[in-house]
Amino acid sequence: MSAAIGAAINAGPRPPQAIAAGAPASAPSMLRPMAGLLGIFLAAMMAGLNNRVGALALADVRGALSLSSDDASWLSTVYTAGELIAMPFAAWFAITLSVRRFHLWMVGACTVIAVVLPLLHSLPLMLVLRGLQGVAGGALIPVLMMAALKFLPPNIRLHGLALYSMTATFAPNLAGWFAGQWVDAAFDWRWIYWQVIPVAALSALLVGWGLKREPVQAGRWAGANWLGMACAVPGLALLAVALDQGVRLDWFNSPLIVCALAAGLGLTFVYGLTEWFHPAPFMRLQMLSRRNLALGFTVFIGLLVVALSGSFLPAADLGALRGYRALQSAPIGLIIALPQLLFGPLVALLLYRKWADARIVCATGLALLAAACLLGSRLTSDWVWQQFAWAQMLQAVGQPMTVVALLFLATSVVQPAEGPYVSGIINTLRAAGVLFGSAVVGQFSAVRSRFHAEMLLDHAARAAGALQPAADPGQLAAALNGQAFVLATADAYRVLGALALALIPLALLMQYIPAPAVKPAASPAAQVH
After folding, report:
1. pLDDT at 8 over 70
2. Cα angle at 147 between 305 and 238, to 5 degrees?
3. pTM score, two decimals?
4. CB atoms < 10 A from the CB of 38, how many?
């Protein structure tokens, strides 16, 4: 990030007189690097909101541009594909070009595209620009984790990981409120894309002022794994298309999905092979042989699937049965999102206590998520957002406990110089995990909904003699479909709750990591004095 932070990490012990004399001068020197880190955090949050808000408000964009449902769905797909493409390579480019330069370029690209997008009326051009914006936005998230791992000393690193965890727990749950503000309160769909402009401007100012200018490391270009990147870019994009469009196009009944899956898996496998044997890979896959990384990343992927029970399932239920708009269902997300501002730092402080075991904290968080799913599985067709409140409160506590503790356990076996490698791995798994989880939950809900609809229709046919002759077949079909959707959502809650419980033993099998020292160890001279 900055030479100031790097010097603070690498400097040797100084005599107490030098420490006392230098204390007043060193305090202001940390202001600019911390401002830069804040700018990186804001940009990562902006990227997460940009993706989720665009997906939630897709119906309004479709109506404003007179697009069909099928055509408009690709606006979300190409952004997600761009994010997944950027994740493995962002940290490498940030180091090569310098964090300051790379970050400002990516923020600038996001901003320029955001300004232009609402002014266009050509779908192909919008798809190209939205995909490029996904690449730029996806590159901003790994930089935050890389900065926390590589530049922050152990005595404050957990707070940096807590900031990163908020990109997974805070931004996605806050997106519903933003989407509702733009399309239901402001009545201007263009702000779905323009919302990034003020945050991007502030982020650029903080990073531009806070981080020092550094030269480009041109020597890294010749040794990079360009063959692997040439395979990974189309491979990951095709996998994103298959996972995001699979439910809509009925998976293996669609030639597009079959070809995308086959080609995507093949190209991604080749990329993995090149990374394994390349002397200077973008991601050092050999690190996965460490127990905490292998188990931690497995739990992390499962957690991303379980987290869909937070806002995705309740919002889908209320939208389908009650016709809730984004602003009406926003409280569901806010109950989870707003407490993260408090609980994230509190979990970090807890993990600094010597008596705290991060494995127990992670397992407790997973148990709370399982309890939230159990409460959600009791839903009926009469529920409104207030009935989801208790489950959402458990989510608000369980999510930061699980994510922050899991990141601590996994990254504590990583050296600072390995931060870029682990950042690429975990962010690639994060983007792929969200896509995979959404596809699995969406397909499961569709299958169970059809099953329950057939069962209810069979019971209705048997009870036809008890129905009044004036019963409207259309109303009866709507009622049956609504009830089938409720039962399918309850089934999804139960499965996600069982998955949360199944992840607890994996979390407990991770290696115990003692709490990091809050204060750096004193030098021998200081101990004598």
Report:
1. no
2. 45
3. 0.87
4. 16
